[in-house]
Amino acid sequence: MALIPPLPVRIVVAGCGNMSRAWIDYTLKRQDCQIVGLVDPDPEAIRRTKEAYALTEVPTGPDLAAVIRDSKAALVYNLAIPAAHYDITRTAFAAGCAVMSEKPLAESLDQADDLVAKARKNNLFFAVMQNRRYLEQIRSCRRLITDGVIGTPGYYGADFYLGPRFGGFRDLMASPLLLDMAIHTFDQARFLSDTRALSVYCHEFNPPGSWYQGNASAVALFELSDGSVFCYRGSWCAVGCQTSWEADWRITGSNGSIRWDGHTMPWAEIAAPEPDQGVRTFLPELNRVDGADVWHGQERHAGCLDEMFNALLSGRPAETDGTDNRHSLAMVMGAIESARTGRRLSLA
Description:
- The chain has 9 helices and 15 strands.
- The chain is globular and about 75 Å long.
- Helices cover 32% and strands 24% of the residues.
- It has 348 residues and is α/β, with parallel strands linked by helices.
- The longest helix is centred in the last third of the chain and has 20 residues, at 322-341.
- It folds into 2 domains: 9-128, 3-Layer(aba) Sandwich (Rossmann fold); 133-298 and 330-346, Dihydrodipicolinate Reductase, domain 2 (2-Layer Sandwich).
- The protein starts with 8 loop residues before the first strand and ends with a strand.
C-alpha cells in the first residue's frame, strides 16, 4: 500500500503551460486538495497562472526541490514538456512526494524503469494521465468485448488522421506523432484488449506538405499477448477526411465486429444463427448490437484525475499506475526503434 498523504493534499504544479489549466481547474473544485506551489523555468508563465487563479501567496520559482521544501507539498503534478518529465518526477520522489504526471511517463524506457523502481522502493504513488480511457464510448466498446458479443477478438485496428498546427516543441520533435500522440491510441488498444504488446513492426515517415520537422505519419503492427493483432495507421498532418481524436476503430472477433468512430457510441454486427445448422450461407445474416451506456463518471482529464485521487487516498495503485503505463510507453518506444532499424522488434 502506497503512503496516503494527509488532507488537504498539498500540491505543487510543475509546469504552468496550457496543459496546467485542466489540472488546476479540476483541483480547485475539490475540497480535499490545495495548490501550494508553482514551478516553471519561465517567470511569465508562473505570473499568468498566479494571476489567473489568485495563487499570489504560494511559493514559486524554477527550483522544484526548493518549492516542495518551502510549501511542504505531498504531491507533484508533472505537467512540463516531455523532455522534463524524468527530472521532475525524480526530484519529487527524492523529496518524498507522490506524482501525477502528464503523458508520456518519460522519454525513454530506461528513464521509465528508473522512475517506476524509485516509486516502488520508496512506497510512493505514481500515476500517468491517460484521459482517453475515461470516455463513455470506450467503456461501452470494452463492455461489448468483455461480454463476448463478437466472440474471441483477433484484430484491433485504429485509424488516426488529424492535422493540428500546434507550433512550439511538437513541430521540432523527431517523432511527433508516435511520441506525443500515439501513446493515447496505443494505451486505448491495451485497455480495450486487456493485453500487453509482444512485438512491433513500424514504418514512420513524413509526407508531402507536412509542417513538422520530424516524422508525422506512421503505420505500426503489434502482436498482442493473447495472440491478437493491433494495427495502427496515423498521421498528424492529414488535411481533410479527418478522424476523431479518439481514432476510428474496427475490432473483429470470431462471431462479429465492432465499429467505433470516436464521435458516436460503438456498435457491433454479429452473425445471426444459421437457419439450417448443416448448411453455411455464403455471407451470413447480421444482427446489430448497440453499445450500452455503462460509464457514469466524469470523462477525459476529470475522469482520470478522479481515479488517480481515489487511488491515492485509498493507498492503492491507480488504473494508470506507472508500472502499468510503462507497457504503453514500451509500444511507443518500440515502434520508434522498429521504424529506425526497419526491423520487427520484440517488446518482451
